[in-house]
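Observation: inputs received (chain + zinc ion).
Thought: call the complex predictor directly.
Action: predict_structure
Action Input:
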Amino acid sequence: MAPIDLFFDDDIRSIPSVDSPQMEESIDVNELLNDPMHTALKFNGTITSTIRELLKCPVCLNAMYSPIYQCSNGHTVCSSCKPRIHDRCPTCRHELGNIRCLALEKLAASLIVPCKYQGFGCKGIYLYHNRIKHESQCPHRPYNCPYAGSECTVLGDIPSLVAHLKDDHKVDVHNGCTFHHRYAKSNPQEVENATWMLTLFSCFGQYFCLHFEAFQLGTAPVYIAFLQFMGDDNEAKNYSYSLEVCGDGKKMIWEGVPKSIRDNHRKVRDSLDGLIIQRKMALRFSGGDQKELKLRVTGRIWKEH
Ligand SMILES: [Zn+2]
Ligand SMILES: [Zn+2]
Ligand SMILES: [Zn+2]
Ligand SMILES: [Zn+2]
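Observation:
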């Protein structure tokens, strides 16, 4: 346990003075760098891997937060794993009891750590216990791939997701803020749930993706078309879009605000936030013998002032 002695160095002990209960959750990095405690921060950086190991729960491997429990031999475990291991220490199998590891809890409380999305451009550093809250809302946190047709687990910032959609999902990118799109399907009566190829639109220096899906709304088979904004919700609100489907002398129009791709496509679909066309109606729009789905969707994206 030699490295832990480092933590009782005077430099490090000065950290808790930054850590007052009134403090806002984010610490300005520049402020810290201009501070005499800069050295403490740097020093802190060199031992974080040891501390990180100490604060890692041996069962779930996640970072531990108060309360942290320990067995009579001093092995630690997190509070969410404790009830799941039937009161046996996961390391030595001794009885666990209810002994808190206050030293480790205090150590954790004194830490200031960078946001885990540092690599994505976040410069924030946070008190250990505040980091999770920040990370759940960090504007730099990566987005999930918005492609709906597969269980894709790719994460990334917008430029890397655009490249991924083009390269790996073979998605087409259209430039401009108006579009005409055709969706076709033979034997649509047999299709209960289906997703069509996503289309990307590039306009106003942003990317939007157009989803088209067949699903069951209650007992009724329907189609839905909707647009998602590749960025955060607060920016998505600056845009509006319309979708229009027509045929056989009829027309349906939808106007809305694109949802951020932070929302899963299924969530947007289930909130019915898009142009919904009943299958019967869609086949009427398709014309002909109504045996085939042939929908022409036209759309427009504009910026709100
Ligand atoms: Zn755990
Ligand atoms: Zn133990
Ligand atoms: Zn962050
Ligand atoms: Zn993907």
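Thought: report the result.
Final Answer: The longest strand covers residues 206-217. Residues 1-25, 27-43 have pLDDT under 50 and may be disordered.
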